[in-house]
Amino acid sequence: MLAWSAAHGRTLPEREAREPWRVLVIEVMSQQTQIARSLQAAVTFCARFPTPQSLAEASPAEAVRAWAGLGYNRRALALRAAAQAIVERHAGRVPADLAALLTLPGIGPYTARAIAARVHGLPVMPVDVNVRRVLGRLLGDADTAAVQALGDAIAGSVARDGPGQAEPTAHPGEIADALMDLAALVCRPRHPDCPACPLEPHCARARSVGQLVGGAAAVAPDRRPRPERPRSTPATPFPRSRRWLRGQLLRELRLAPPGAWLAIEGSRGMHGHTAVREALSALAAEGFVELDEAGRARLAEG
DNA sequence: AACACGGGGTG
DNA sequence: CACCCAGTGTT
Question: Do A8 and A43 sit in the same domain of this protein?
Fold first, then answer.
């Protein structure tokens, strides 16, 4: 894998980040956003909030404004809460062990391991859908726990012993990057290029397909991703979804001068006055906005 | 296990 | 306009 990675792997700018807080911010952003955009956003965000403490001291409004254009705005609040936890429980420094990382708001199994491996060199594997696909195929049929266990075992093994006899050990982050590159370039969702894969001799899927067609030269594409979508109840058109309404309201509130109360009246898209009030109440309950006695709204300053 | 959560990009 | 993307938290 490492030899393949050296020859065919990608060089992505986000992999050069080493500073723990920056890595954390990039990883949280890239949970939901194309890497090019999240990288650009991380530059702006980290200039505004260069340390956990600086974000911990900021208002929800400031965090949400800095999150503009990224979507999944709850992550801005979670990241702020994580920064506060880092300040309170870890003296303002990103914790170095997996269990501590997993307690942070918005940090789940993937992100905790991404930080632990990339920043601290811990022998764990961040398993996203791409790594999940590679290791899942390798094992044949495996549940999430088995895939995670294999991933962590691989990271541990290579970090401890090196990829082979008399070879230097590798950083766990390199193994993760190598698997992600393999997932993107070779072990693709629909048309995996098994003959080009360094893991092919060990792979359960390649073996079963090879048996099926009688050779490794002809590898059939996966028929997998069933697009099966209920035709009878089509997904709600975007402009009328609740997601859209929430995004629209947050967009308006972000645009208002900081601290100013905004009277939000009338309807938005397909949503009547009542739906708008309900959405504002929900946003208030979740900590995005505050409402005054007159029902006016602003991003939460507290 | 199912659902909610948001943007931008593509065809 | 329909559809795609994909980790975390809640129910």
Answer: yes
Rounded to whole angstroms, how far apart are CA atoms A116 and A114? 6
Task: Tell me what the mean pLDDT of segment A34-46 comes to.
Answer: 90
Q: Which residues form the domain of A109? A: 2-120
Say yes or no: A172 and A105 in one domain. Answer: no
pLDDT value at A105 more than 90: yes
Determine contact, residues A181/A198, Cβ cutoff 8 Å.
no
Torsion of CA A242, A243, A246, A248, to 10 degrees: -110
Q: Which of A62, A95, A120 is the last residue of a domain?
A: A120
Protein residue at shortest CA distance from C1' of B6: A71
In a domain, A192, yes or no: yes
Q: Distance in angstroms, CA of A213 to C1' of B6?
A: 43
Kindly list the catalytic residues of A: 27
Question: Tens digit of pLDDT for each residue in A249-299?
Answer: 999 999 999 999 999 999 998 899 999 999 999 999 999 999 999 999 999
